[in-house]
Amino acid sequence: NAGVTQTPKFQVLKTGQSMTLQCAQDMNHNSMYWYRQDPGMGLRLIYYSASEGTTDKGEVPNGYNVSRLNKREFSLRLESAAPSQTSVYFCATGQGTVYEQYFGPGTRLTVT
Amino acid sequence: KNQVEQSPQSLIILEGKNCTLQCNYTVSPFSNLRWYKQDTGRGPVSLTIMTFSENTKSNGRYTATLDADTKQSSLHITASQLSDSASYICVVEGGTYKYIFGTGTRLKVLA
After folding, report:
1. CB A97 to CB B44 under 8 A?
2. Dist. CA B91–CA A111, nearest whole Å
3. Res A1: pLDDT
């Protein structure tokens, strides 16, 4: 069981470039989440998917889009990267609100 | 404003000693409070989840307490080990899918 996997592990983009962060889980969880973690700040929720076929905005959705491709996969897309999106991005899964979340290893993104 | 504040920001203790980390929150409504452990360069790992009616919850050498009246929680680590060196993050779920994360306490355990 791989749990929660994220690709890539590291990425450097130039301002204006686009990219998609991939997340996959083999835990059969209903809910999936995308967070960003910045120095000196708590993790912040970007988007979440409560169940397959649904997606909703979190606290900081601007500049991002998501796709819940199927129950296993949840991707995060940056259409036009900005330096303010330099961060560590974590995907997480869980059975839903009030249940514990399982985090992936993270993607470290730098936008120059 | 919904906030979660953790103290201390950082802590150094000797292996084998106990320590207590604090979390104060001003979040409403309140659904549950979580503690996570995050090793450097890794994703957070859940330690406990506590609902309004739970006062204490243990996970091995980790014991979390919750006082919903004073809006305070603590995480007590007993007989610390070198592997306990990590950041410990307090999170309050305030309403459905609304997670307010603290900035964490960085713990260093020395041999």
Report:
1. no
2. 28
3. 66
Of B32, B44, B99, the CB nearest to A45: B99
Distance from C-alpha of A59 to C-alpha of B101, rounded to nearest angstrom: 11
State the Cα–Cα distance between residues A46 and A111, nearest whole angstrom: 18
CB of A52 within 8 A of CB of A70? yes
pLDDT, tens digit, for every residue of B10-26? 999 999 999 999 999 99
CA distance B42 to chain A (A): 5
In the prediction, which pLDDT does A89 show?
98
B70: pLDDT strictly greater than 80: yes
Alpha-carbon gap, residue A111 to A78, rounded angstroms: 11
Cβ contact (<8 Å) for A103 and B44?
A: yes
